[in-house]
Amino acid sequence: MAGHVIHLKPIGSALDEHLPVDHKLSTVYRVGAGLMGLLLLIFGVLGLTHNIGFFDTGGDTVAGLNTNGALSVLSILVGVLLFVGMVRGGNAASTLNITLGVLFIASGFVNLALLETGLNFLAFEIQNVLFSFVVGVMLMWFGMYGRVGSALPHDNPYWRARHPQEADREARSRPGRSR
Question: Of 129, 87, 89, which is closest to residue 108 (Cα–Cα)?
Answer without folding.
Answer: 129
